[in-house]
Design brief:
Blueprint lengths: L12 E2 L11 E2 L19 E3 L4 E4 L4 E8 L8 E6 L3 E2 L8 E8 L4 E8 L8 E9 L2 E12 L29 H6 L14 H7 L5 H7 L5 H11 L10 E3 L4 E5 L4 E7 L7 E4 L2 E2 L6 E6 L2 E6 L8 E7 L2 E10 L5 E3 L4 E4 L4 E7 L7 E4 L2 E2 L6 E6 L2 E6 L8 E7 L2 E10 L5 E3 L4 E4 L4 E7 L6 E5 L2 E2 L6 E6 L2 E6 L8 E7 L6 E8 L10 E6 L6 E3 L2 E5 L4 E10 L3 E6 L2 E3 L6 E6 L2 E6 L8 E9 L2 E12 L6 E8 L4 E6 L9 E10 L6 E2 L9 E4 L8 E9 L23 E9 L2 E7 L11 E8 L6 E2 L9 E4 L7 E10 L2 E2 L3 E2 L4 E2 L5 E5 L9 E4 L4 E10 L3 E6 L2 E2 L6 E4 L3 E6 L8 E9 L2 E12 L6 E9 L2 E7 L11 E8 L5 E8 ...
Parallel strand pairs: 1-5, 4-11, 13-20, 22-29, 31-38, 41-48, 65-72, 83-90
Antiparallel strand pairs: 2-11, 3-5, 5-9, 6-7, 6-10, 8-9, 10-11, 12-14, 14-18, 15-16, 15-19, 17-18, 19-20, 21-23, 23-27, 24-25, 24-28, 26-27, 28-29, 30-32, 32-36, 33-34, 33-37, 35-36, 37-38, 39-42, 40-41, 42-46, 43-44, 43-47, 45-46, 47-48, 49-50, 50-53, 51-52, 51-54, 55-56, 56-59, 57-58, 57-60, ...
InterPro entries: FN3_dom (IPR003961), FN3_sf (IPR036116), Ig-like_dom (IPR007110), Ig-like_dom_sf (IPR036179), Ig-like_fold (IPR013783), Ig_I-set (IPR013098), Ig_sub (IPR003599), Ig_sub2 (IPR003598)
Keywords: Actin-binding, Cell adhesion, Immunoglobulin domain, Muscle protein, Phosphoprotein, Repeat, Thick filament
Protein name: Myosin binding protein C, fast type a
């Protein structure tokens, strides 16, 4: 039998079960917040007593107790009270949350208490307490459910269950059968094996989502909310607190601001804004506004962190929404540049985008690149790099970078590395049995090579050895013999390079019998000689020419070039002499060293001579006059002139390079020698400026680069114009129109060329001298009756596009169309204007050819003196400078072509203000009322009278007051008149122009007699106001300066009004324009304009009426200012 619930105590402690009984809520330290690393390595049961889940009463206090055994701990344990997964309640301590900690030294047990003062609905949910101590930890969870407070029950609740009526002997005093009858038996439900957490979430309240997610291990709350949103559609519920809730979702671009608005039913209600369950505080980023019942939350400069769930809380009601942050498309602000490197160099492609932190995708020839040992990606702010540490020929290709709003591409060219000679081979002169060592060093350790003697490859043997260690290559010959003498050459594999040196064998001969022998020059023409007595030397190389000389005694050697003798002193060009040998040496050969050299040897026995021709060859000069002769969509034609100097060796061909304007990277276009002086460059980007340069190549090497060409831009002609149609045809003309081409390109459109020809002919005639910019054109001067074909070509910087040709020929003949007047909408009803305004009516019509327009007014021809009419081929204009009532009437316009005609009629009404009503009469007076009647005005202003305005005036004050406005009838009743007053009335008439200027005044008056009192009227004696004229203010004598206007004044009174006469020296002034006479309420003024000496004298003012006359006079002196007086001033 259930017991009724008792009111909860103010302070309620929840006792935990004994520690030896395990709880379902127990958990270890492995339950940590997602994204955080667990801090403890050992899980142990430290709780002696754990807090337990309770159901609290709203408004009451509840206390949770946890006890921890510290006997096995080295340090004091640390206790944390958490709500949900990560909200630390320690920072919320205050009036609502109170924490207490005690320690029992005997049992070494710590007791921790958490008290929630006056529980509210927001305290419901899942809680967790966690205790840690160095290497140990333990935690447990508990829940709080909040229910409403129960109503006050009876003091003695058992009184309600006392038994009444007869009962058995064994029946008790209380009867609870009423409760048993109403209670339904609960059926025991079998626990479900499979729990569908999504069904639980679907039927749960939003405030329980976090608790359920924590219970079932769901960590992605955002993903859970999105899935629930798709699973069900929440029907909006009527809210008591909200008149208008938040929208289900909002979307805003990154960097912009967004405003969330709700409307409350109570303008004084307080609201709280939450973001992902956390309350938002006002700041520069979050701005709260309150206008009446509207509450606004403004989020400035939205970032991706603001993509969250927001809610507005008013009391116990909430309004939820989600804010989604859209990232604007990322564009490329700095494009990729083409790169040309040699094998083994580092490659860096750099691109700059519009947004920091944006993701880019790198691709090569359509295949996406990933981060591996070969490719590295780097970014710094808005800059991104693709890095290739050591480039190889396999890396040649087109590289692309893609963003969400743009793309760019660049070419990578990798050239074989040029081999450099670090140490060349030196000539050797050795004796028999000595060791010969030829040694050279190149820049690449991996390069192999072969040794040659006099053009024959050297093979290793016991006496000849070849070694390769790192960059050094050696040829060692032991026990040198006479047959080892000759030219030795090292040729690296894969390179057009050779290093040569000579081995000279020094043979010692001993002659015991002295003898004389004529000198003899022995020239060896098998080495550097290309033909007889001619040596070719590459500019910059060293020439060493050894000449064997015989003769006894040893002859004297003399080298000459022209008349200049070469000395044996140190220098760039010198001669070295040894026994039986003369060496001619040129260090770093130059073009000036070329020429014929003479050698002469002499001794006592005779003389011998020989000539040697030295020819210096070099790389050619750079090509000249590099220019672009034509461009295409992604190509350009380049032309240049051959170099002026070919270096002494015929030019084999050319190498070309290009670069984007503003860039410093040149890209090689060909690796094989190109023989022609024109080249078509491909794979360019339309709309980008490029520059080109050319290298000349001969048998010696490559020239310096030519001067860069002028910048050029690859641009393709546009496609043909579209939808070429005929708009109009007349005798001798044809109007064409068309649409721009579908593909325009970066060059834009400069204009269009229109051409025509007779059908069947092949000669096209250009109709316009310069391109037209509009998409329409009228071709004139065409032969009437001929069939013509037309075509239109678009023109831009790249040239003309393909023509758009009309499919069918057009016959040049006027087309007769039925006339049709297009009357404007405002003229289809009565056209009203006020008197004096301008009338200007434009009425278009459609007809061909040469229509005839005619105007009639009221069926009669129009008077062109009163109305101006101008008619063209497309419209007619009716104008009136100043409208008058006579211009009102019906106007008929007819347009006629041959026997076809169209007519329209329009009515013009010129209106003005009406005249005053007539015959205004007071017809009856009763009580405090008066009845008025009148007749409409004679002039209604040429329009209907819309009403009347009636005003009254008391004869004593004569001030007018409005009685009625917009009265439609010609009669009315004036009420609420004042007793004892006499009234007169006036009436204004009204129409669409307004009230009449004048009013109709009643002929009689309305006297409101006093009721109940009779006053005997005394006979009125009219006072005689007549008097003769009398000046009350006289004229005063004046002295004025010549040239300055002056005035004299006086004042007069008299009745009837006197006549005023001004006189000068007793002569009446009259209507002299020099004088201006004024009379304002008896104040008389005579103005004299710029008086002179002649205007001085005596002035008299005389006033005359029927009862008499009066006069006053004064003297006016006009003086001229002297030069002395001006100087004083």
């Amino acid at each position: 039998m259930p017991e009724p619930k008792k009111p909860g105590a103010k302070d309620k402690k929840v006792e935990a079960p004994p520690a030896d009984k395990p709880s379902e809520d127990d958990g270890g330290c492995d339950e940590h917040v997602p994204g955080e690393e667990p801090q403890m390595s050992q899980i142990s049961g430290l709780f002696v007593e754990k807090p337990q889940s309770v159901t609290a009463v709203k408004g009451k206090n509840v206390t949770f107790v946890a006890k921890v055994d510290s006997s096995q701990m080295l340090r004091k344990p640390t206790m944390k009270w958490l709500k949900g997964k990560w909200m630390d309640l320690g920072s919320k301590a205050g009036k609502h949350l109170q924490f207490k900690e005690t320690y029992d030294r005997n049992t070494k047990i710590y007791t921790y208490e958490m008290t929630i003062v006056k529980v509210v609905d927001g305290d419901a949910g899942g809680y967790r307490c966690e205790v840690t101590s160095k290497d140990k930890c333990d935690s447990c969870t508990f829940d709080i459910s909040v229910e409403a407070a129960e109503e006050t029950q009876q003091t003695n609740i058992l009184e309600a269950f006392k038994r009444s009526g007869d009962a058995g002997e064994d029946a008790g005093e209380l009867d609870f059968s009423g409760l048993l009858k109403k209670r339904e038996r609960k059926q025991k439900e079998e626990p479900e094996i499979d729990v569908d957490v999504w069904e639980i979430l679907k039927n749960a309240k939003p405030c329980d989502y976090e608790k359920i997610a924590f219970q079932y291990g769901i960590t992605d709350l955002r993903g859970m909310l999105k899935r629930l949103k798709k699973m069900r559609k929440v029907e909006p519920k009527k809210s008591d607190a909200f008149l208008k809730k938040l929208d289900p979702a909002y979307s805003v671009e990154k960097g912009k601001k967004i405003q969330l608005n709700v409307e409350l039913s109570d303008p004084n209600a307080q609201v709280r804004w939450l973001r992902n369950g956390q309350e938002i505080k006002p700041s520069a980023k979050y701005i709260f506004e309150s206008v009446g019942g509207i509450r606004k939350l403004t989020i400035n400069k939205c970032t991706l962190a603001d993509d969250a769930a927001y809610e507005c809380v008013v009391g116990e009601e909430k309004s939820f929404t989600e804010v989604f942050i859209q990232e604007p498309p990322v564009t490329i602000t700095k494009m990729l540049d083409d790169i040309h490197v040699v094998v083994g160099e580092k490659v860096e492609f750099e691109v700059e985008v519009s947004d920091e932190g944006a993701n880019v995708k790198w691709m090569k020839d359509g295949v996406e690149l990933s981060r591996d040992g070969k490719y590295r990606f780097k970014k710094d702010g808005t800059k991104h790099w693709l890095i290739i540490n050591e480039a190889t020929t396999e890396d040649i290709g087109t590289y692309y970078v893609y963003t969400s709003g743009g793309e760019s591409k660049a070419e990578l060219e990798v050239e074989e590395k040029e081999l450099q000679v670090l140490q060349s081979i030196a000539d050797l002169t050795l004796k028999a049995a000595e060791q010969a060592v030829f040694k050279c060093e190149v820049s690449d350790e991996k390069v192999t090579g072969k040794w040659f003697k006099d053009g024959v490859e050297v093979t290793p043997s016991n006496r000849i050895k070849m070694t390769h260690m790192g960059r050094t290559h050696k040829l060692v010959i032991d026990d040198v013999k006479p047959e080892d003498a000759g030219d030795y050459t090292f040729v690296p594999d894969g390179y057009a390079l050779s290093l040569s040196a000579k081995l000279n064998f020094l043979e010692i001969k001993i002659d015991y019998v002295p003898r004389q022998e004529p000198p003899k020059i022995h020239l060896d023409t098998t080495g550097s000689f290309v033909n007889k007595n001619t040596i070719i030397v590459v500019a910059g190389n060293k020439l060493r020419f050894d000449v064997d000389i015989t003769g006894e005694p040893p002859p004297t050697v003399c080298w000459k070039k022209g008349d200049m003798e070469l000395s044996e002193a140190e220098g760039r060009v010198r001669v070295e002499t040894r026994k039986n040998l003369s060496c001619f040496i040129i260090e770093g050969a130059e073009r000036s060293d070329e020429g014929l050299y003479h050698i002469t040897v002499t001794n006592p026995a005779g003389e011998d001579k020989a000539d040697v021709m030295v020819k210096i060859v070099d790389v050619p000069d750079p090509p000249e006059n590099v220019k672009c002769t034509g461009v295409g969509e992604d190509s350009a034609s380049i032309q240049w002139d051959p170099p002026k100097f070919d270096g002494g060796v015929p030019v084999k061909g050319y190498l070309m390079e290009r670069k984007k304007k503003g860039s410093s990277r040149w890209t090689r276009l060909n690796f094989d020698i190109y023989e022609s002086t024109t080249y078509d460059a491909k794979k360019m980007i339309e709309g980008v400026l490029y520059e080109m340069r050319v290298f000349a190549v001969n048998g010696i090497g490559m020239s310096q680069p030519s001067a860069s060409s002028k910048p050029f831009m690859p641009i393709a002609p546009t496609s043909e114009p579209t939808r070429l149609t005929v708009e109009d045809v007349t005798d001798g003309t044809c109007a064409l129109k068309w649409l721009p081409p579908e593909r325009i390109g970066a060059g834009g459109i400069d204009g269009y060329i229109i051409e025509y020809c007779v059908e069947g002919a092949s000669e096209w005639v250009q109709a316009n001298e310069t391109p037209v910019e509009k998409n329409s054109y009228r071709v004139r001067g065409l032969p009437v009756g001929e069939k013509m074909l037309f075509r239109v070509t678009a023109v831009n910087i790249a040239g003309r596009s393909p023509p758009a040709v009309m499919a069918q020929a057009v016959t040049i003949r006027e087309i007769v169309e039925r006339p049709k007047i297009r009357l404007p909408r405002q003229l289809r009803t009565k056209y009203i204007k006020r008197v004096g305004e301008k009338v200007n009516l434009v009425i278009p019509f459609q007809d061909k050819p040469r229509p005839v327009g005619t105007w009639l007014k009221d069926g009669a021809p129009l008077d062109t003196k009163l109305v101006n009419v101008r008619t063209s081929d497309v419209d007619t204009i009716l104008s009136i400078r100043q409208a008058a009532k006579e211009h009102s009437g019906q106007y008929t316009l007819s347009v006629q072509i041959e026997n076809m005609e169209d007519k329209v009629t329009l009515e013009i009404q010129i209106v003005d203000k009406p005249g005053p009503p007539i015959a205004v009469t007071v017809t009856d007076v009763w009580g405090f009322n008066a009845a008025l009647e009148w007749k409409p005005p004679k002039d209604n202003g040429n329009c209907e009278i819309t009403g009347y305005t009636i005003q009254k005036a008391d004869l004593t004050t004569k001030e007018w007051f409005t009685v009625l406005e917009h009265n439609r009838r010609p009669s009315c009743t004036a009420s609420d008149l004042v007793m004892g007053n006499e009234y007169t009335f006036r009436v204004f008439s009204e129409n669409i122009c307004g009230m009449s200027d004048d009013a109709g005044i009643s002929k009689n008056t309305a006297v409101i007699a006093k009721t109940g009192l009779k006053q005997k009227q005394q006979p009125y004696k009219e006072k005689d106001m007549c008097s003769s004229p009398k000046f009350i203010t006289p004229l005063i004598d004046r002295s004025v300066i010549a040239g300055y206007s002056a005035a004299i004044s006086c004042a007069v009174r008299g009745h009837p009004k006197p006549k005023i006469i001004w006189m000068k020296n007793k002569m009446i002034i009259g209507e002299d324009p020099k004088y201006l006479m004024q009379n304002n309420q008896g104040v008389l003024t005579l103005n004299i304009r710029k008086p002179s000496l002649f205007d001085g004298g005596k002035y008299t003012c005389k006033a005359i009426n029927d009862l008499g006359e009066d006069e006053v006079e004064c003297k006016l002196v006009v003086r001229v200012i002297t030069e002395k007086e001006e100087a004083k001033k």
